Amino acid sequence: VSVDNEISGSGTLQAVGATTLGNTLSVSGTVTVAGDIDHAGDSDTYLRFEPNLVNLVAGGKSAIKLATSAGKIQLNNGNDDLNVQIMADDGEVILHTDAGTNKVGINTESPSDALTVAGGISGSSTLQAVGATTLGSTLNVTGTATLAGKLSIDNEISGSGTLQMVGNTFLGGTLSVTGNADFDGTVTCDTSLTIDSTTITAA
User: Fold this and answer.
1) Which among 79, 82, 118, 128 is placed 20 to 30 Å from 150, CA to CA?
2) What is the mean pLDDT of the chain?
3) Residues 118/108, Cβ–Cβ less than 8 Å
4) Of 99, 96, 131, 102, which is closest to residue 114 (Cα–Cα)?
């Protein structure tokens, strides 16, 4: 059946087999699809429907797949070298996942580590770092900082509250304290110790 103009109806229009539309199909109501919706002339680009599953594929690569039976929404389901990005309204990248290097960048498209953040990080709970941790700038702590291992500092520590160290503490430079300094154990100095303008020189 070839129709050069319009088809209208108030019930069900069912097409079994290949159906070609040369123009626009407008539907007020529900469209039921039993298989894929293919892009004409582009056989590896389609929207696939299966029971409790929908999969958007372009160029033979799965962009997004929802499978409720597996309880998953997957991006890059085909495990291809396709980076996933979340964009801001100004065109900048907020979140970048690099499929080729298994790295994630926040506010950067070139993550150098498993997670690279370009900008500040803030939180209201616990920040735990297991292993070597390198800070290239300032660490500001409001509250308590607990260290279970070794802390190496190449520059200065400053603060307006209490600095508490449990265990052996080694300082390679100068310790300046404005206020009270309480020591529960032994203080060993390689050079000198100054208290209230009185200097005690190491033997």
Assistant:
1) 118
2) 83
3) yes
4) 102
- b/e per residue 68-77 (b: at least 16 CB within 10 A): eeeeeeeebb
Structure tokens at 17: 């087999």
Q: How confident is the model at residue 203 (pLDDT cuts 50, 70, 90)?
A: low
pTM confidence score: 0.63
pLDDT mean over 169-191:
74
- Angstrom CA distances, 91 to 48, 94, 97, 104, stand at 30, 9, 16, 18
CA 150 to chain centre: 28
Q: Say if residue 102's pLDDT is above 70.
A: yes
Q: Contact, 142 vs 159, CB < 8 A? A: no
The CA dihedral of 26, 27, 32, 38, to the nearest 10 degrees, is 10
Nearest to 97 by CA among 73, 81, 119, 120: 81
